[in-house]
């Protein structure tokens, strides 16, 4: 059995290219808010994140979400959201029963409320440092609590990490999301607490969904650093650097694997 990975985008954000990659020009650039539809043979349509949603736009119209919108301007239309795109593709929101959440930044959970029947799979370490934050303290962590469903915690299934073994070196832990080896989560913390990537077993081989471990595929493979100003917003810059190095080492050891990151065009996608 294998899965089919379909990369999508739900809106975009504006940022300075020089912030996302040291040495790039100081010009404003649009970056996609990527998410992924995964067609699983027994679980149906599974999402890896959701990108932006209408709730993000609403939150940014009032304090303190207004701060988020000023720092990271967001562009998302009513037809750009994950649930509308999936509906057009023939997957009504009620059919989505599983969403794997890489981390809790607004551009990754902006559409969670649109999928009322989904279970959320994430690392408990992503939730614990943020669960009590409100107001400006939350926005400073790119976290908008109002984006989460009221019953968010009740619908969470915490990823169960075990020893990854030598095959996934240098990743020390892995969580087999559905216990079938098709979708395996690996820790990539630093950019955000408890952030995870996903190893998806497709018919053509392995696809690595690396979330925000890098701003671009090139950076993910070559280790091009962000501007020091960007690191101010990271949860733990040391962890971020370690996770980036682990990702590069894993890709080097698995050269046929395709890499997808959230804010760049997916590698090898046609």
Describe the structure.
The structure is a single chain. Helix content is 24%, strand content 26%. It is α/β, with parallel strands linked by helices and 270 residues long. It has one domain: Metallo-beta-lactamase, Chain A (4-Layer Sandwich). The strands form 2 sheets. The protein has a 7-stranded mixed sheet with strand order 4-1-2-3-5-6-7. Strands 8-9-10-11-12-13 form a 6-stranded mixed sheet. The relative contact order is 0.16. The mean pLDDT is 92.
CATH class label: Alpha Beta
Radius of gyration: 17 Å
Tell me what the CATH architecture is: 4-Layer Sandwich
Q: Which whole number gives the mean pLDDT? A: 92
Q: Give the name of the CATH superfamily.
A: Ribonuclease Z/Hydroxyacylglutathione hydrolase-like
Total count of domains: 1
Number of strands: 13
Briefly say what this structure is.
This protein is α/β, with parallel strands linked by helices and 270 residues long. It is 24% helix and 26% strand. The chain has ten helices and 13 strands.
């Amino acid at each position: 059995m294998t899965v089919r990975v379909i990369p999508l985008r739900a809106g975009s954000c504006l940022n300075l290219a020089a912030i996302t990659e040291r040495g790039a020009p100081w010009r404003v650039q649009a970056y996609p808010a990527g998410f992924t539809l995964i067609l699983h043979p027994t679980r149906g349509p599974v999402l890896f994140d959701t990108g932006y949603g209408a709730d993000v736009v609403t939150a940014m119209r009032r304090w303190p979400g207004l701060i988020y919108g000023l720092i990271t301007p967001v562009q998302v239309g009513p037809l750009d959201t994950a649930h509308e795109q999936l509906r057009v593709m023939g997957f009504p929101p009620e059919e989505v029963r599983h969403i794997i959440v890489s981390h809790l930044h607004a551009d990754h959970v902006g559409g969670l409320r649109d999928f009322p029947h989904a279970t959320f799979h994430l690392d408990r370490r992503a939730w614990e440092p943020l669960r009590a934050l409100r107001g400006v303290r939350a926005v400073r962590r790119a976290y908008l609590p109002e984006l989460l469903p009221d019953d968010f915690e009740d619908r969470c299934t915490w990823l169960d990490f075990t020893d990854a073994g030598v095959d996934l070196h240098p990743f020390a832990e892995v969580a087999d999301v559905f216990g079938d080896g098709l979708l395996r989560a690996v820790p990539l913390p630093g950019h955000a607490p408890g952030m995870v990537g996903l190893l998806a077993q497709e018919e053509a081989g392995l696809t690595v969904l690396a979330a925000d471990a890098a701003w671009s595929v090139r950076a993910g493979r070559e280790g091009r650093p962000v501007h020091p100003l960007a690191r101010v917003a990271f949860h733990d810059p040391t962890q971020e650097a370690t996770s980036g190095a682990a990702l590069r080492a894993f890709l080097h050891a698995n050269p046929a694997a395709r890499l997808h990151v959230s804010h760049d065009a997916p590698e090898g996608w046609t």
